[in-house]
Amino acid sequence: MLFSSFEFIFHFLPVVFGVALLLHYFGKSRYIAGWLVASSIYYYTDFKSWHLAVLAVMLIFNYIASLKISAKKRARLWLWGSIIFDISILAWFKYAHTFTFLPKDIIPSTLPLGISFYTFQLIAYVVDIYKERLTPAKPLKYLFFILFFPQLIAGPIVHYLQIAPQVKELGKKRCCEYIDSGVLFFIIGLLKKVWLADTFATFADKAFNSVAAGKSISMIDAWGGLLSYSMQIYFDFCAYSEMAIGLGLIFGIRLPLNFLSPYKADSFRDFWRRWHITLSTFLRDYLYIPLGGSRKGRGRTLFNVIAVMTLAGAWHGSGWTFVLWGFLHGVMIAFNHLLYRFRVLQSKILKPVKIFVTFTTVTLLWVLFRSDSLKTAKQYYIKLFDISSFHIDTHWEFWKLLYHWSSSVWLWIIPAILGVWFLPNMKKIAKYSEDFRDKLPSQSLWLGVFSGIALWIAFKMMSSEASRSFIYFMF
Amino acid sequence: MSLLWVMLILGQIKNPTITSRWVYDVYTKKSKLLSDINGSRLVIVAGSNALFGIDSKKLEKRYHIPTINFGVNAGLFLPLVLYEAKKVLRRGDIVLLPLEYSMYLYDGEPNEQMIGYTYSFEPSFFWTLSLKEQFEMIWKTPFSRVLEGYMKTGTKPITKGLYGAHHIDAHGDQTHSLKRYMGGFEKDIIKHIKPTLYGKDEPKKALAWKYLKEFDKWAKTHGICTIYTPPVFMDQKIYHTDKKEINFYKTLPKRAKEIGLKFIGNPYDFMYPRDMFFNTDYHLNAEARQIHTDRLLKLLGSDIHKLCR
């Protein structure tokens, strides 16, 4: 059940919310938490039920590990044991198919949904227990922080301490306090997914599939396809992140921001502070800093950055394209570190240029992310710079362009790029704060009207075509 | 918003669009061919499997009845195809219906082609649909189709490309479908066509059977003979190995007969190898058309009138 499906919006969500609302009047947080955990399990098993078995094994093992670590019974052994166990399970499902010498029967055919996300959450949990940042959770809160369905499949990667205090508050505060903000986030995310992300996907697929099939495409079409993918992945991830926040708010849980106008970044360092924020935070806190961070000299810092980003690439997918993508992002961040010394480059006048350069470089690297192989990626890069195939139709007639608006990729790309650069993000529009102690303002009537129109358009789009799965569901 | 949407749709009704223009041109030409014939006719009603797959001249020669191929586009879906047929049929006609399998799966949900053609060229068809189907049609109209309607992109007949009245002969058959006309694009499509799993996709209660029953009843009351046969289709291994697919093809003739349709033939007999096709899994090339027509003639027998008694 995708968030952007009628089944989720009209069957699952109303039932889960309705019962949660009823339970609210008992004032007991554990009733609501229990109901949400049960609903999340149901939600998860709607995809494939055997995935739940994998999740259950990891949940149990890590919980036992956390108890042993907290009791200081061979704590270090249990810590490393659970980390190796978690990483091994993740690596097995992601990479087993690359070991061609293994019998085909034992190679998993699919990746358990959300495994990349909940693995990191579990690792963070046991490490935090080891470092005495927290004490072992009660089973219900533990299950809630991993299984809560808005973030279960594709993040954000939440820390236990971000969720546990909020679980305690369930049922105690005024009911549906931020439901208006929640619905706003959900609807805007839904529209971005079914209208923008899925539309750009058709343009991107056409270009990339043509190149993968060995067909020739012109330079203009290659750029059109690449920019479409850049927009597709942007809106897809943005949509998911916003829908997750919206769903969290509907049930009274404040989830962390995971996406913050990344195409407005003026450097690769800035990009990773805006794109998949919780992944960057996890990698920084649990990998980069333990490796030494920036405390062991410039050379080691640059090495750490590149190593961490290369692993981030591998986390995304099992192909060499993802590893190379991560590696190159690491190189670019390292490059930013080196350039940071030059004060002239920090000038505000250069900011638009830096934003443009960062956006273009990030987009060029998406070729690796999207291509099914290094060979396809190489071919695509060749097409992007094949000047001999550059051709602009000089017989454009405006009305024909307009008619073809639904199929003319450039009539979509240009407004989209202008939008991501100049329009405010949802954090600003809804005045969202991640800290659950901060009050959120009530949303205006105009936003309500806008949401209503947006919802109508989204439903219309959903009726015309089945929505695609979110890109980050693959990881 | 919904009211605004309906008004937007109404504002572009009867505006011709390029995507459905060729269908209109072809139906217009074929309707003229039919109206020019006095007396009874043998009319082939289906989608483009018939358009590409049947040599109507051969049928005419065998049965000594003027024969017109009224097959156009299965993408219009069953209700619209039957609606167009009713407009041209008259007492004494024999109607041969080698309907595409997709037509038997119609479940009330329109597609873009059905919507587009209805708005541009056949708005009266809308009122023959049930309330639910009317709602579906309005609700599922893409934004781009409404815009296309306001642009009036199809004011001129289509004179280029494979599909269009310019490639229809005097019997309504498709021309320019010889193997030598297959370019790299067509060869690539044929090479990569995947199976269509009608058995798996068939809805539990397809609305198609209601429409077929109603059409057959209408035909009988108007003195029109109807004969249903399997369509041309590309053979794929899974149609012979998968249980659901086998069940679909084996039971289709029986289910048709159960509602009173005169269905003759076995679907598997009209499944042909990949290299006999032109550009889709329903379009035979011109050479293969002869093979299929001969097989069809064998099925229909020496005297088609016997099937009407």
Helix content of chain B: 40-55%
User: Number of helical segments of chain B?
Assistant: 14
Number of helices of chain A: 20
The overall strand count of chain A is 0
Question: Which key phrases capture this entry?
Answer:
heterodimer; A: mainly alpha; B: 309 residues; mainly alpha; Rossmann fold; 4-stranded parallel sheet; two-stranded parallel sheet; 14 helices
Which helices and strands occur, and which strands form pairs?
The complex is a heterodimer of chains A (475) and B (309).
Chain A: H1 6-24, H2 29-45, H3 49-70, H4 75-95, H5 115-130, H6 139-147, H7 149-152, H8 160-169, H9 179-212, H10 219-250, H11 268-271, H12 277-288, H13 298-316, H14 320-339, H15 351-370, H16 374-384, H17 398-403, H18 409-422, H19 426-430, H20 445-464
Helix pairs in contact in A: 1-2, 2-6, 3-4, 3-5, 4-5, 6-8, 9-10, 9-20, 10-15, 10-18, 12-13, 13-14, 14-15, 15-16
Chain B: H1 2-10, H2 18-35, E1 42-44, H3 48-53, H4 56-63, E2 67-69, H5 77-88, E3 94-97, H6 112-121, H7 131-139, H8 143-151, H9 184-192, H10 198-201, H11 208-221, E4 225-228, E5 233-234, H12 238-241, H13 243-258, E6 271-272, H14 286-300
Parallel strand pairs in B: 1-2, 1-3, 3-4, 5-6
